C-alpha cells in the first residue's frame, strides 16, 4: 500500500494579491463590456434623443424602433414610408452628422399606425382667466394675479 506524501494533499498556494492602485477603466471594463455589446452608447443616444436628432418634420412621421448592425428601423405609416425612402440618404447623413460618427448605414421601414398622440391636433392656447377681485392692492396683488394666471393657463 503506497502512502501519499504530505505535499500532494495540500491545495496549491494562492497567487499573491496586488493591492496597488488601478485605473477606473480596468475596474469598469468587465462590467460595462456586456452592456455595450448589446447596445452601443451612441445607439442609445440615437433612440432616446430622436426628436432633437431627426427634427420636428421627421419625428412626426417616423419613430425609431430598433438599431442593429448599422440598420435603423423606423416605424411609420405606409404612405410616409414611401416618402421617407426617397429622402433616405439625406436622413442618414443628417443622423450621422448629429451623432458625430458614421453609425447609420441603412434605413428599414416598418408599417405601424401612428399613436393617438400624433393624431391629435396641437392644443390651442387658452385665454387667461381674470384673477379674483379680492386681491390686495400694490405689488403683492400684481404678483398674486400673475401667479393665478400662470396656474390657470
Main features:
about 10% strand; 8 helices; alpha+beta; 3-stranded mixed β-sheet
Number of strands: 3
What count of helical segments does DSSP give? 8
> Could you list the spans in which at least 5 consecutive residues all have pLDDT below 50?
116-120
**Quick one: overall form?**
flat
Largest sheet: 3 strands, mixed
Strand % is 5-15%
CATH class of the domain at 36-118: Alpha Beta
- Side by side, the strands of the main sheet go 1-2-3
Overall pLDDT level: 77
Distance between the termini: 97 Å
Q: Report Rg.
A: 30 Å
Q: Helix proportion of residues, in percent?
A: 40-55%
In the CATH hierarchy, the architecture of the domain at 36-118 is: 2-Layer Sandwich
Describe this structure in words.
- The structure is a single chain.
- By secondary structure, the chain is α+β, with helices and mostly antiparallel strands.
- It has helices at residues 6-9, 24-38, 41-48, 50-61, 78-86, 88-99, 116-119, 139-152; strands at 62-68, 71-76, 106-111.
- A three-stranded mixed beta sheet has the order 1-2-3.
- The longest helix is centred in the first third of the chain and has 15 residues, at 24-38.
- Mean pLDDT is 77; it is low at 116-120.
Amino acid at each position: 500500500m503506497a502512502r501519499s506524501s504530505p505535499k500532494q494533499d495540500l491545495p496549491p498556494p494562492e497567487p499573491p494579491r496586488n493591492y496597488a492602485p488601478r485605473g477606473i477603466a480596468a475596474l469598469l471594463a468587465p462590467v460595462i463590456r456586456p452592456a455595450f455589446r448589446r447596445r452601443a452608447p451612441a445607439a442609445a443616444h440615437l433612440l432616446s434623443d430622436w426628436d432633437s436628432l431627426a427634427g420636428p418634420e421627421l419625428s412626426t412621421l417616423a419613430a425609431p424602433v430598433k438599431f442593429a448592425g448599422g440598420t435603423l428601423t423606423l416605424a411609420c405609416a405606409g404612405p410616409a414610408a414611401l416618402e421617407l425612402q426617397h429622402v433616405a440618404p439625406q436622413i442618414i447623413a443628417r443622423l450621422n452628422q448629429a451623432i458625430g460618427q458614421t453609425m447609420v448605414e441603412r434605413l428599414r421601414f416598418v408599417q405601424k399606425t401612428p399613436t393617438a398622440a400624433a393624431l391629435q391636433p396641437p392644443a390651442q392656447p387658452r385665454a387667461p382667466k381674470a384673477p379674483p377681485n379680492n386681491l390686495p392692492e400694490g405689488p403683492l396683488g400684481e404678483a398674486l394675479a400673475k401667479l393665478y394666471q400662470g396656474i390657470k393657463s
